[in-house]
């Protein structure tokens, strides 16, 4: 019954497009419809990823889910840049990294039960998140005094973005080779689901629909923020981050509930690493074509919460096991971060 409801709910994505472009419905209603429409799309991406992982293994499956799921995040960021909302972009990047590491990983372990984790893979990815946070300090520290959007900081961001992309390419290449070798050495599982081509096609279509719905969501955010009396930073770091990453969030939770804890944790941590080392530098580089160029000049609280979340979770997964008590600690820490974001308000 639940699956039938989710399949039927996929109609909300074209409905959101029709409401905006044909009937010009108000922004607050558009925000609500588009946010709800992302839920079945997230389920479909999680479903397709699980079937793809039967052919590729959990490591590559997590990479596929994070890659397809972060496409809307990239689109949301570029739309916000073109709309002159740099703080929304940086807040969304911060919130995406923190929510995937604490919120999604916490729910994945809580719902998936205690089990063995891929310690090496998770620690490597958390390590490169910390490397990214350290590199963010290069344009961020000078931005703590003076105009955080000044052109010199955008220039300072260029080499940082290039290094981040190079690190991501190197680590991803080695990681995928390792996961492919482990999958080949392990016992082959009999595939009882979709063919790989069907799963990849579903991933592509669901990602395209998610991108359209996410774009509608961004354009309706300002009106929603005014109606809800929330700061721009809170909206971007919490609501945009969660909704924009609904694909990974929903996919990890669905897969965790089915007992595939290693795949679920790979999705959560892979997504954070991709946001830090792929989405953030890509947005910074592509913003030069859109203008104004985006400096990766994060506030101290943003740098601290990104780095702190990665360090905390690295300590949790160090023993290659996840417990429900540790999962509750991650969720509690995320609630504390959300409260902090709400108290601090805008820059």
Description:
- By secondary structure, this protein is an all-alpha fold.
- The protein is built from 13 helices and 2 strands.
- The chain has a single domain, classed as A middle domain of Talin 1 (Up-down Bundle), CATH 1.20.1420.30.
- The protein has a two-stranded antiparallel ribbon.
- The radius of gyration is 19 Å and the shape is globular.
Largest sheet: 2 strands, antiparallel
Succession of helices and strands: HHHHHEHHHHHHHEH
Strand order of the largest sheet: 1-2
CATH topology: A middle domain of Talin 1
The rounded distance between the terminal residues' Cα atoms is: 46 Å
Measured by DSSP, the beta-strand proportion falls in under 5%
Average predicted confidence as pLDDT: 85
Supply database-style keywords.
globular, two-stranded antiparallel ribbon, 2 strands, 83% helix, mainly alpha, 13 helices, A middle domain of Talin 1
What is the strand and helix layout of this fold?
Elements: H1 2-9, H2 12-21, H3 27-56, H4 58-82, H5 86-112, E1 115-116, H6 119-143, H7 151-185, H8 196-228, H9 232-244, H10 246-257, H11 261-290, H12 300-317, E2 321-322, H13 324-344
Antiparallel strand pairs: 1-2
Summary of the model, kept short:
The protein is mainly α and 347 residues long.
